[in-house]
Amino acid sequence: MALIGDFVLVILYVFTMRDFGIFLVTFIVNLTLLVSGIGVIHFILKGFWIKFSMEEIKVLKKLDQTTTHSLQYTLQDEKVVKLTLRWTKPKGVHPLKTLKNIILFGNLEEIDLAPLSKLTNLKELKLWSDTALSLPPLNDLDDLHKLHLSSPKIWNFSTLRGLQNLQRLFLSGTDVKDLDPIKNLRKLQVLDLSHTEVSDVFPLKNLKTLEFLWLRHTNVSDLSPLKKLNDLQKLRLDNTPVSDLNPLRNLQNLQTLSVSNTTVSDPTPLRAICNLEHVNLSGTKIGFNNDTLKLLRRRGITVIV
């Protein structure tokens, strides 16, 4: 157990429990945390392909903070907000209905993720799999604000259609190609599609709340669907076939633009962007002494070529 300020970190090291599961520690019904203030409980169950049922950790019914605050934490208490499972094989996550943050690492192809659809208090979900990932129905997760998926193959991507309150979506390094399932996620503020197979961003044209968009190492060439995304502040287009920046000229809130290693040759449209602060044009055909770049520098804009 480690204490860092108001952050409480509870770590159960179970490297030697491959054959026994975590029932060896289930006699710990109450843990006493000698801390001041209100902390956040963070469970990390670490091991080598441990096979266990989540029912086995329900015996950790109470974590008592025995200072003057005398707060109680249970797996049924909203104070227990985060669970991280690294390289484990849980049989299910259904007893964890009050958790707000879940991170699962490893070979998720062998894990039944269907119970995730019942965790209606989830605000953040990260699923990082080194094998194929089959998404469960997520339509009922109305409180889910952040979703991070990492897998070489994602099945049932269409289940994202129902995440109407999603604000941050990270899909970098996945095989995602068709963005139609996310075209109506009108509350999205952050979207990372780097290192994906995406080539058409037309489905993003109505995502007017987008502030940060990463399209690095994709096949995107046509930026016209982005021309009315007026809230965009940061846009990364490095290592793409992009050549024309004209669709960006009216994005007055754009602060950071990176188009390194593209075929962009004319930076003139950047003159019209009033709030621009940082531009990366390295690896393009635009020379250091380009007239537009001189103007941008005089305006105090950082220009990298």
- Give me the number of helical elements: 1
- Work out the radius of gyration: 23 Å
The CA-CA distance between the termini, in Å, is: 48 Å
Beta-strand portion reads 25-35%
Q: What order do the helices and strands follow?
A: EEEEEEEEEEEEEEEEEEHE
Q: State the share of residues found in helices, binned by percent.
A: under 10%
Mean pLDDT: 77
Uncertain parts:
1-80
Query: How many strands appear in the DSSP assignment?
Result: 19
Shape summary? elongated
Give structural notes.
With 305 residues, the chain is mostly beta strands. 3% of the residues lie in helices and 28% in strands. The protein contains 1 helix and 19 strands. The chain has one helix spanning 291-298; strands at residues 2-4, 7-13, 30-33, 40-52, 62-65, 72-73, 80-90, 101-106, 124-129, 133-134, 146-150, 154-155, 168-170, 190-192, 212-214, 234-236, 256-258, 278-280, 302-304. The strands form 3 sheets. The protein has a 14-stranded mixed sheet with strand order 1-2-4-7-8-9-11-13-14-15-16-17-18-19, covered by helices on one side. A 3-stranded mixed sheet has the order 3-5-6, with no helix packed on it.
